[in-house]
Specification:
With 344 residues, this protein is an alpha/beta fold. The chain contains 16 helices and 5 strands. Helix 1 packs parallel to helix 2, helix 12 crosses helix 14 and helix 13 packs antiparallel against helix 16. The protein is elongated.
Length: 344
């Protein structure tokens, strides 16, 4: 893989290639932009380029992808590169023998509980950042979901990104830049990542063999994000059961969609949100194309109602009940979700 394989982020990757070529890398970088647009993938590619053992590749600002360092970073086994996300944190919490028959089950349960990057994880990463490098490259410390750091964790990180050791770079990845401490933001060089085009989304889904039932439609409803496209595909599969027509759902449709949500609360809430996101996008497109004002007002009122249903998912409300009620609110309204022409 090379920076050229990261579609839709040409400005960001061109800047990073220049840093590799010049060897003048900021002590801390902030990768910000929507989820699912390649921020984590780019961070790991940058780590490879900084540590690649092929001088010709580095001279081009790239990684060869074939040397021992590149392979180790790709497999996340390189001692000088740390990628800390919720899975990394869950592994720190579940201190069991990897060969234990219950390890994977306990790890999955712990991963489902992750909501914040905590201070113990930051202490683990900062300790590793102070260790002597194994190779002659760079120590690259990557923190995903950086906006989720608890205040104590962010404060503990602050002094390490202010003056990192030589040839050490911190990369903080976030989809919610405004949720981060200003003191952290002020010490990071920001690098924006843009939403992906529909064409890039379709190509990424195909190139990575990500199976989707509605390839073109899920890219259209994906809001410029690979993860958004995959969620939209699940939502479309659920909405197929609603039997949406010119006058809303079939009589049994809303109940069928609600019954098909996952049994676990977290998964059901995510699926319900994806369903509402698809409905909102399709309804907004229809509203924008409606010529007469009375019908526009009705669509606008329905859009407001759906936004309220979406907001209710953040509270202690049954996702199944929210979805069923939202679909019933479409009575008499045409929502052409599966009309390809509607999504060009």
């Amino acid at each position: 893989m090379s920076f050229a394989d990261i579609l839709g982020q040409e400005k960001a990757t061109a800047y990073l290639k220049t840093l590799v070529q010049n060897g003048r890398v900021p002590g801390a970088l902030l990768f910000y932009g929507p989820d699912g647009v390649g921020k984590a993938k780019t961070a790991l590619e940058f780590a490879q380029a900084l540590n690649c053992l092929d001088p010709q590749a580095r001279a081009q600002g790239e990684a060869c992808g074939q040397c021992a360092a590149c392979k180790a970073i790709r497999q996340q086994t390189h001692p000088d590169v740390v990628f800390a996300d919720f899975l990394y944190q869950a592994r720190l919490t579940v201190k069991k023998d990897f060969s234990s028959s219950s390890y994977e089950e306990e790890l999955e349960k712990e991963l489902a509980r992750q909501q914040h990057i905590n201070i113990d994880t930051i202490r683990d990463i900062t300790a590793k950042s102070q260790q002597k490098s194994v190779g002659n490259g760079w120590k690259v410390m990557i923190i995903d979901e950086a906006q989720s750091m608890q205040s104590a964790a962010a404060s503990a990180l602050l002094k390490f990104i202010e003056e990192p050791p030589p040839r050490t770079v911190w990369i903080l990845i976030t989809s919610k830049r405004t949720a981060m401490l200003r003191t952290i933001l002020s010490r990071c060089q920001p690098l924006a990542f843009a939403p992906l085009s529909r064409e890039h989304l379709e190509q990424i889904l195909q190139d990575n063999h990500l199976e989707t039932r509605y390839p073109s439609l899920c890219a259209a409803y994906g809001a410029g994000s690979v993860s958004g496209a995959l969620k939209a595909d699940e939502a479309l599969a659920l909405l197929q059961e609603a039997e949406l027509g010119p006058n809303g759902c079939s009589p049994q449709g809303p109940g069928q969609v609600a019954a098909n949500l996952s049994r676990t609360l977290t998964a059901a809430r995510q699926e319900a949100q994806a369903v509402l996101d698809v409905l909102l996008q399709s309804l907004h497109q229809t509203w924008a194309r409606t010529p007469d004002e009375p019908t526009q007002r009705r669509y606008a009122a329905t859009l407001q109602q759906l936004e309220k249903y979406k907001h209710s998912l953040t509270r202690n409300v049954s996702p199944a009940l929210v979805v069923e009620t939202a679909l019933w609110s479409l009575d008499g309204i045409s929502v052409p979700i599966f009309d390809r022409e509607n999504n060009q």
